[in-house]
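notes to self, project folder thing:

trying the whole complex as one job this time. last attempt i did each chain seperately and stitching them together was a nightmare. two parts in total, labels are on each line so i dont mix them up again. if this works i'll redo the older ones the same way
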Amino acid sequence: MANLNVDSAKERTYDAIVIGSGMSGGWAAKELTDKGLKVLMLERGRDVKHLKDYPTTNMYPWEFTHRGEMPMAVQEANPIVNRCYAFHEDAAHFFVKDAEHPYVQTKPFDWIRGYQVGGKSLLWARQTQRWSDFDFQGPARDGFAVDWPIRYKDIAPWYSHVEKFAGISGNRDGLAELPDGEFLPAFPLNAVETYFSKHVKTNYKNRHVISARCAHLSKPNQIHLDQGRAQCQERTLCQRGCPFGGYFSANASTIPWALKSGKLTLRPFSVVESVIYDDNEGKATGVRIIDTNTKQTEEYYARIIFVNAAAINTNLILLNSKSKRFPNGLGNDSGVLGKYVAFHNYSAHIGAEVEGFEEWATDGRNPAGGGYIPRFRNVYKQETNFLRGYAAGLSAYRGYKHSRDGAGEEFKAGLSKKEYGPWRVGSHLMGETIPKETNFVKLDPNLKDPWGIPQLQISVDYDDNDEKMKKDYIEQLTEMFTSAGFKNIKAESNHQAPGLDIHEMGGARMGLDPKTSVLNKWNQVHSCPNVFVTDGASMTSTSCQNPSLTYMALTARAVDHAVSEMNKGNI
Amino acid sequence: MDRRTALKNLALVIGSAALLPRCTSTNPVAHFKNFDVTNDQQSLVLNMAETIIPKTTTPGATDLGLDKFVWLMLDDCTKKDDQKAFFKGMGEFGDLVKKTYNKDFADCTKEEKLSLLKTFESKNKPEQKNPNPPDDKYSKELHAFYRTVKGLTVFGYTESKYFMTKEIVYELVPGRYNAMYPVKNNSKV
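result (full assembly):
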């Protein structure tokens, strides 16, 4: 019997375990297997195989029973996920329904989740910008959170590393606040976006409107073809899963790459209950999971563990990983685990009518979505009554003009007219929020989820800084639109709850001081160095750039360090 | 009993009497998940849809099954309260037709049907700031009923395979993004 147990434990032992198969987990698996490690990847949801498991990807609009709309019964049963812009008939199967994984909203928080292989990398909006030192130095300069333990120079080569593989389209705009990367050709701005870009450049110091940088293969290189991916076909049906692998997802890119090495074992249907910490050995030895099909608890072992369960669930796992050494959660000597959670403020947008430009329209679809306005507030120095700043989306569009008024033959014929209507232009707010101790997640003392794991209480809210920033965004964009000659400008504050931005970050932040942070500069748990956290949970501050590219770069960098430490025998 | 209710009841009585043979012998009920629909009600929606998107040299609402789409969407994608309002409005619409033309919508001439809808349409612009002005003689349920039939008929039409392959062609795989697409003679179709 003893031998059997030993054999069984051997079979369940790997060099590394990666918890989570999404944006950052996929990268961990890819980098670890590239370095020759035998890796187990745990995914709580089902498998989604590239090409095979995209059931709606080639469906025409009329092939959807309700032409894309979600049945009311589903909407009413799922008020949280139903608020997500992409929760429609073509992609609803990639979203977690509200009842599947309950949590306690101490304050309203729309927790949008994708529990399947690939996670939310199937569903993301694919916007990818580097951070700059204006971001990494932000907390230190402006006196909030704690100082980032890294600077741009530490991560820059890793941005390059992941950009080359993922495929990022963009222009080399030469902006200090938004460093250039390894770009494939950008998707160009249209007539009105170009006009606005020139207008802003001429009339505003340090404000720019550039082509949105996005993870699409505008012109694939050999490395992308080697992944089995092909050029983006401008379908903009990305949320269904792309049969071309035209945008970066773990499913199309990192996971098949890692599987091809023969060194990756992918185990879906595995909810991680905790990371196992051995008090005698003084290190983490493995992971305890619950198989969602059999409901059985199982253990897997490895020398190093990467926690990439997505920000909130990573916090949940660490908080629930209790041992004699860590009674309040793995690596939580400081007591900050679960705290300083932040997000992005997406709660305002603005729209206007545009006169002129009648000689231009667009043809096809733009996967990048249009333009991007990098942060221009408080970049070089503090200049407003709020901290930090915001980026803004910017897109102009023009469709056919159809009267929806009337009935009968003439009305019907009118619907088929290919006569262009006027241009419209729109923008949306993407604001940095300040991580605070009072924005936190913690384990509920009583409530359990369907797997017997404590439910999370989520207590995250906007603050006065967010309100001031939103007001400024509306004022500045209104002024910029007005000076550009746009008409009938309407700004709207949508009062959406935190979470719906799907950019929740923090809780296990990086920092220089173990007394005030959970992770060191290598994303390594200060007090348990064979555990790494490289997803959104590790973020010390949020910047206003979209975060995924930074998770990818941090992951690749952390793996490089982990393997080097393993080789030195340090972990 | 106010004048309006009295008129409505009278219309119901006259209507029922006139329709008695059809009602009793050929008015079975179609069962949906959330409601039942009589043949008369189906006929009304079908005739309204066909009036909005008529058969011309190209297929109309009946050919494209848009009435069925209206019922499907009402059943599956509409709130319970809005379904109730729809049926209340539908009853009032039937009354209005009888009051105006003394017959069922289905039995009206093409011109009568169109005239009725268009009269209604002009009071029912979605962009109108106040959809229920004080001098409006129609209830909000009646407006909602018309708006629902109209909206779903047009939605079903512009998202139909016919429309998306023959009228304004939908491309599943555009394979291009031309950000500067020249437009010539925009006013000419």
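what i see at first glance: Chain A touches chain B through 49 residues (CB under 8 Å).
need to look closer tmrw
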